[in-house]
Design brief:
146 residues, three-stranded mixed sheet, 3 strands, 2 domains, mainly alpha, Zincin-like, 65% helix
């Protein structure tokens, strides 16, 4: 409360009537502390709400996600036979040799850049079954063009 300390010194120095003001200054200091505490609670809760809003902004619906998968499939020139979204315990996604892609529902809540990496990875498996140099090169090239 440095501002109040300086004000107290200024009033004591400049005015004979400063004593009454200085006594009331303690009341003002206490009220100011109370207001800061009240405001802090509201301000911090707003901060938490903004963080939640950012998470929501990153989230996409299943329909939008599937549309993005199909857009990437078109760029990569592959045709997934099925696209599923369901809870998965150990990985973000999987693909089958029959063209079935399955994505973890939690992926929809991840940042767009990360979702794209997972989608490209799985779609590339429809062309290249392993993680060899060709797979890695194509993934890197595709993710750089977005």
């Amino acid at each position: 409360m440095g501002v109040f300390d300086n004000l107290e010194k200024a009033l004591a120095f400049d005015s004979k009537d400063g004593e009454g003001v200085i006594e009331n200054l303690d009341v003002l200091k206490n009220r100011f502390r109370e207001l800061i505490e009240e405001g802090k609670k509201e301000y911090l809760s707003l901060g938490r709400e903004l963080m939640e809003d950012k998470k929501i902004e990153q989230s996409v619906s299943a329909e939008i996600f599937k549309a993005k998968v199909l857009a990437w499939a078109k760029k990569i020139k592959v045709k997934p036979m099925e696209i599923h979204i369901r809870p998965m315990k150990r990985k973000w996604a999987s693909s089958s040799s029959q063209g079935r892609l399955t994505f973890d529902v939690e992926l929809l809540k991840q940042p767009a850049k990360f979702r794209s990496k997972v989608v490209v990875h799985e779609l590339l498996h429809l062309k290249i079954p392993n993680h060899g140099p060709l797979f890695r090169s194509l993934a890197k090239a595709l993710l750089s063009i977005r």
